[in-house]
Structures are given as structure tokens and as C-alpha cells.
Specification:
alpha+beta, single chain, 5-stranded antiparallel β-sheet, rod-shaped, 17 strands
Length: 426
Amino acid sequence: MMCRTDQMSGPGEERDAHATDAVFTSLLEDSAEELYEQAPCGYLSTLMDGTIAKINATLLDWLGLRGPQVVGRMRFTDLLTVGGKLYHETHFAPLLQMKGEASGIAFDIKTAAGERIPVLVTSKVKLSQEGEPLLIRTTVFDARDRRAYEAELLRGRQAAEEARRQAEADRARLQEALAVLQQSLLPSALPEVPGLEAGSYYHTASPDLLGGDFYDLFPLDAKRWAFFLGDVCGKGPQAAAVTSLTRYTLRAAALHDPDPVTVLSTLNRVLNERSSGDTRYCTAVFGVLERGDDLVGVQLASGGHPSALIQRADGSAEYLPTPGGMLIGVLPRAQFTAARTELRPGDTLLLYTDGLTEARTGPQRELYGEEALHAFTTALPAAGPQALITALTGLLAGFGEGLDDDTALLALGMPPTSAPAPDSEI
């Protein structure tokens, strides 16, 4: 048998109901006047010219005034600061005229003691039965806690903005220092070699990190010039320290004995015997140029580095293979591969680091690779080292975000001979 629940309430439930009724009854016993006067917000009514006709005790208490001092004697704008008065005349009052109400407008009101109280004001025009405006009813909410909260937010925002500006300034100074340090690891300019042309380029993948790529070109004697290009593994200050050590070791070893294999062997011993515990290694190509009558002899050796590429004057291109060359600095004894070639007028020898061939291209982010570099070089006219470097610089720029590693380029060659002028017709 099913029973209605309202017919089964017990004595306890009846007591709860009576207690609830008593609470509501006590609320209803408050008069409307008391609710108006003791409301948790300020109330006032003004004539259309702003003269205060009625104001509650809450607002009077905030102002530190008594009713007879305000009612009929002061206007709403008299309660405002100078800035509030201007805003009232230029924005608040016109808005009330047009729309008949304005909500949540921030003002500061003045107390009798000269203090300021931030408030939020909402006003609405009361109309007669004929639609004529009679008076303005206004509610005033104390916004001191809110203003304090907003001030705290503003201070926090300003502190965050100052921290951001300081961080940007610190980063700019760091990048400037890193750029200067990076340049110190490279020759400021390549020297002029009689009868030869040289070009170089260095791409920095990140201004916030020191790279380990390096190159150089310097004289050995009146007829011979040494060159090298390489890449120290890793980035940052430690890589830069190894790069600096590598450059100076190669220069010193070349002046003692310029044989390419001997120079790389000396570098391998120096890097391998370091006592710092840093196991960084590098790859490098070291070579010697010797100027002849109508050609330049090239002798080089490679330690784990990509093969040099030769652009010939006839438009062909070929890699100079150096298989078997080992990474430099890993083992106490390392094997390095030597190679020889000749450069004739219009030929260019290109050395590069793997940032070029390991760039990511296309939607699938595939490696650019040595075959693509060979095809790119073959498609170019043989116009000398500077022209080849310029073309490769544009290629690197086209990789965009796919080029995420530092890249060094060094091109050496003989300028093309000018074609003989045709005989003049007699």
C-alpha cells in the first residue's frame, strides 16, 4: 500500500517547519523604512537637477554627515571629487538623459573629514504616469575592497611587466655578448690570397646559444696557404671553449708541420688528453693550397667530416671523397683520410658543416642531403667562390625553421679566366 509522504511527517519535522516560519516572520517584521535606512549600500533620491531629496543612514554614515546638512541643501555632484564632477557632467548625466539609467559607474565620494571613498554608482530615472522624469534613484556601493584588489592586481601587473622588460633587456645583452663571443671564434675577414678568391658565411641557428662551427684561412709561407673548417659537437660555453682550443691548435700545428694528416693527429691528441673530463669531439677538414703557374694544388685530410664539393669550370660538380676519417678527440689514436686535387681557373672548392645537408625540407621534413646539394651546385653557373656562397646563403634562408643547426661555409677557388677578345676586323 503506497502512502503520501506529507501525511507521514513526524514531530521533529514539524518543529523544523515552525522554526523556519519564525525566521521568515522575524524578517517580515522589519519595516520598509528600516530596510532602506540600514541597507548595506547607500541609497539616495535626487531631483532632476541633482538636488538630494532623500538619503539613507548608511550613506550618511560613510560621508560623516547628518540628514539636515544634505537633504535640500546639497546636490549629488557635491558629494563627488573634482574629477568625479567632471565625469558626471560629461558622461554620467548625458547617459541618464539618453537611456534613463546608468549602471556600475566608478566614482570617488568625499567625506566630511576630507577622505575619499571609492564607490560604484547605479542610477535610474523615475517617470510619471505621463512619462515625464520626476526624480533619480541612485544606489551607491562601497568599492574600497574592490579598489584595493584592483590596485593589488595593477601592482602585480606592473611588477610582471617590469620583470618582462628586465628579462628582455637581459636577453638582449646576453645575445649581444654571445654574438661578440661567436665572432671571436671566426676570422673577422678572410685574407686576400694572390691569384685566389675566397668566400665564407656563418649561419647562427639560435642567438641564445653559442655554436661550435668554425673555419679559417691563413698563410704558411709565400706560396702556401692553410685552411680548415669543422664542427664541435654540442652548443654553449663548453662547446665554445673546445672550438677556441681547436682553432688555435690547428694553427699552431700547421706552422710546425703542415701535413694535413699530421695536423689532425695533433688535434686529436690534444682533445683526447684534456684533463677537464669533457668528452666533446669534433669533425674537421684541414688542407693546404699551393699556387702554381696556372693551377692550385690542394692537399687535405678529413676527420669524420662531410666530403668537400668541387664545382668545376665546365659546370660539373663532384665530391672529393675522404672515407674512413674518424671523429677527432674520441680515441687516443685516430685514422684520418688524405686526398688531393687541383683547382684550375673557374673551379671552386666548397667546405660546409652538416647544418646544410641535415636541414629539414618539405612537408615530410626530409633531410636535404648531399645529393640535393650536388644537384643545386651543378645547376649554378661556375662564377667563383663569392657567387657560390651568395647562392648558398639564399638556399639556407629558404629553409626557414627547417634549418635548426649552425652552418659554416668556406669556398676557395681560382677566378675564371676572361675569354679572349675576338680579333678586330680589318
